[in-house]
């Protein structure tokens, strides 16, 4: 059996292994490298394959036990492993059983199961919208995006440049409070959206503070897990906490907040950035909100966000939104 993508080819061998050759700049040959091959090499991590398929820059194999392996480019989650990380060797695709055929397109993959049943009956939690505000004030109001629908899961992150006091806004539940122990404090809240267009949420502080507020909305059912981590050293890279995902198809929302003396930009791998927040002047609060998924059940690993300004005052959140 043969399959081909944009610039590569696959052949299913009689022993259940897969041979690959051609262009490899996006790891589509699965041999652990990104080296172009003019002769066939073996795809690593595949054994007992009974059928194969190809996308534009990724490969797929269904094994004799009904499971699926995938490798190559993964910018849109086409490998199905719950990340956006490209893979130079094959990885297992969680949640698939009894698969008898696989195929792929530009940035997606499909699998046919012998039972004909969909492999993911629970669906997935999906990003809806985000909004936010930064300032130097004793209260800040943030608009709920107009695209939010009744029943959506709202997650609200608040960060201040001092050990402020922030009560839960009306109708919101506290997920947690985190602090660096001296002068940076952050809160996470959640509630179900009421679906009122143009509504807003107001965060009230005990005194004027540098503050950043980020509100993210998801088409999901509820927050099922929350974890936080305060920075332990000085640097530009800040690590989040790992968190447990109990329901496949969940989204994991990450939020980083840091106290710095100048505007900072952020970068993060394997996640989709949704909002950056920045104030002004000395001691301002900057933030990044991003998410990843759909996530398989199990431990969602820590993620690292890197700011353009180093700081020893940083807090990271990991919040799981179930479908």
Automatic annotation (TrEMBL):
InterPro entries membership: Ran_GTPase-activating, RCC1/BLIP-II, Reg_chr_condens
Pfam family, one: RCC1_2
Protein name: Uncharacterized protein
């Amino acid at each position: 059996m043969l399959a081909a993508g944009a610039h590569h080819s696959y052949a299913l061998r009689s022993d259940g292994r897969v041979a690959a050759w051609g262009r490899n700049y996006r790891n589509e040959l699965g041999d652990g490298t990104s080296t172009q091959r003019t002769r066939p090499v073996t795809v690593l991590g595949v054994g007992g394959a009974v059928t194969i398929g190809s996308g534009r820059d990724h490969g797929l194999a269904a094994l004799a036990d009904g499971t699926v392996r995938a490798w190559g480019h993964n910018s849109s989650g086409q490998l199905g492993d719950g990340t956006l990380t490209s893979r130079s060797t094959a990885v297992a695709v969680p949640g698939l059983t009894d698969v008898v055929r696989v195929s792929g397109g530009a940035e997606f993959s499909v699998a046919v199961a012998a039972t004909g049943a969909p492999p993911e009956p629970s669906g997935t939690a999906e990003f809806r919208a985000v909004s936010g505000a930064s300032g130097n004030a004793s209260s800040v109001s943030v608009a709920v995006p107009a695209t939010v629908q009744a029943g959506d899961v709202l997650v609200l992150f608040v960060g201040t440049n001092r050990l402020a006091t922030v009560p839960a806004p009306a109708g919101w539940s506290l997920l947690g409070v985190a602090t660096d122990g001296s002068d940076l404090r952050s809160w996470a809240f959640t509630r179900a959206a009421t679906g009122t267009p143009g509504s807003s949420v107001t965060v009230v502080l005990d005194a004027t503070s540098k503050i950043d507020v980020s509100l993210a909305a998801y088409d999901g059912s509820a927050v099922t897990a929350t974890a936080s981590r305060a920075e332990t050293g000085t640097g530009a890279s800040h690590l989040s906490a790992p968190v447990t995902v109990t329901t496949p198809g969940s989204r994991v929302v990450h939020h980083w907040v840091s106290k710095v003396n100048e505007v900072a930009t952020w970068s993060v791998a394997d996640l989709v950035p949704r909002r950056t927040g920045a104030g002004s002047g000395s001691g301002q609060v900057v933030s990044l909100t991003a998410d990843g998924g759909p996530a398989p059940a199990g431990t969602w690993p820590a993620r690292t966000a890197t700011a353009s300004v180093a700081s020893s005052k940083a807090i990271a959140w990991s919040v799981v939104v179930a479908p």
